[in-house]
Amino acid sequence: MAIEHRRRFVRRTPIVAAAAVLALAAACSSSGTKSSSSTTVAKSSSSGTVAKPPAAATTAGVIVGSANGKSPCEKALPVAASPGEVGTGTGGSGGTADAEHGPRGALVQLPLTHAERTQLAAQMNQAATTWSKYPTVKQAEAAGYAESTPYVPCIGAHYTNVGLAGSFNPATPSELLYDGTTPDSKLVGLSYLVNHNDGPPPGFAGPNDHWHQHNANGGLCLKGGLVVGGEETTQAECAARGGHKTILANIWMLHAWIVPGWECSWGVFSGECPELGGKIGVNAWTS
After folding, report:
1. Which residues, in sequence order, are bridge partners of residue 27?
2. Residue 36 DSSP SS3
3. What is the reported pTM?
């Protein structure tokens, strides 16, 4: 069942439309990066060349034992959807095989300076304005967001506004996460999908915002603007579907679980929210 869930999801990953469009876009965002996350990134290709994982991903890990198989997320989706979603996202940024997922669980939180705390508080206040603007899917769609994944346990249903993906702005996340896909489905989190050269975007203040990618095993299988296979897809399987494996070297993603009632216990910037269970393609409340 977990394998079937995985296959169904990766064909409509959060970057279904946005990644394909941004991969073809010539425009790039701000050139500034955090010194702790500086990295050399390979060009987008299907050659198997991959981006190096961000330096920040090697400085923090997962608290051992914090994932024990009992959370709603783990029960609903025993196998993580992508190497980039677990831990600090290192697997999704490098050349690891699809099976080489890092450990799930709560992220180790690194200390912040006084200046970083002040800046982060201001950024969180900006991000909080999203709660009142897009409390349900109805408001998101009216504002130009479109469904890019069905509901998936651990990460929610993604609604994407590609026009906001050119740069990082706490107040304008390019993706919104909901507990289902009906007009009255509720907001559970934010997701920042950003096209940025030379490593992850500056992002939130401090070292705890672990940006991830979906470039394991040669990347996703793209057919035009559609993901027709996930990272586990082989070159041959991808070609048989009319697509090609593509490294999206400059596409970076970050979840932010800051919506009241969904302060996820694995961390504000964890790739997965353990409290999000439910049933794939339905909602967080159906077993």
Report:
1. none
2. helix
3. 0.76
